[in-house]
Design a protein that fits this description.
CATH architecture of the largest domain: 3-Layer(aba) Sandwich
Strand content: 5-15%
Largest sheet: 5 strands, parallel
Helix content: 40-55%
CATH class of the largest domain: Alpha Beta
Number of strands: 9
Order of helices and strands: HHEHEHEEEHHEEEHEHHHHHHH
Radius of gyration: 20 Å
Shape: globular
CATH topology of the largest domain: Rossmann fold
Strand order of the largest sheet: 2-5-8-1-9
Structural class: alpha/beta
Length: 315
Amino acid sequence: MLDITDIRIANVQSDINAAVEAIETIILGKSTQIRLAVCCLIARGHCLIEDLPGVGKTTLSQTIAQVFGLGFNRIQFTSDLLPADILGVSIFDAAKQTFTFHPGPVFAHFILADEINRATPKTQSALLEAMEEKQITVEGATHPLEEPFFVIGTQNPLDQSGTFPLPESQLDRFMMKIQLGYPDEEAELALLSGGNPRDLMRKLQPVVTIDRFKAIQASADNIHCSDALLSYVQKLLQATRNSGLFVYGLSPRAGLAIIQAGKTWAMMGGRDHVEPGDVQAVFGAIAEHRLTPSESHSRSTTDLVNTLVEQVAIP
């Protein structure tokens, strides 16, 4: 017989599954990536999607916002975009003889920073305070952002023309980084025969209200994380710093992200406690974009991260 906590978790899991299933009607054959993006959103993180143009990065972002009923703004990052174009600007009101702040597109629940690496570093940095502190500062005045606040950044591979690499400080603000990749044969055939995904997306209705979404986020905070599990996460962090596989290891911010995402992944699985498998499920998406292989290793970051996870003993 389920107790009250089990019923609550079961209800939350049902809501999340309904949202994921709705997203999967638009983004075909990418269940793992969708669940990771949803996990990141519920865990109050920000998500970076790196991939080639045309594989569904923007469509995924818009679909997630629509399914969760979140206010959505898209900011198209280009080389001539200025910080004020994102944050807003104070304009002098002659009638009132004072400056009035006009908020920019960053004032929304869900921000799509589209092709974020096509903007200059100065413009990229305009999001740093917003992503970390959920506020912006313009001309000495601080303006809080709406809650919930979530940024999905999309970027093209760095070997494409007209791109500026994101600095480590910016990358560390993104809880997760995922890649969609090409669809498999079955999913692509269904996509080609199913009509324009954007037309289907416009017909989607929100699965949960904003208040319900906030309650789901609060539920993830209450998932139990044992001392043994915390010790396991710390061992993973220490391994990234001391194994010699990487130039430098994961930051404490990354450790907190692993815990919060692990709690959310456990809740999505219907559990009221975090297991090592929950940590392992989210670890790669959280760690890989923060780590750089040392010069003595020619293997990919993904391979090295998988090796490290295999080497760290589970308590």
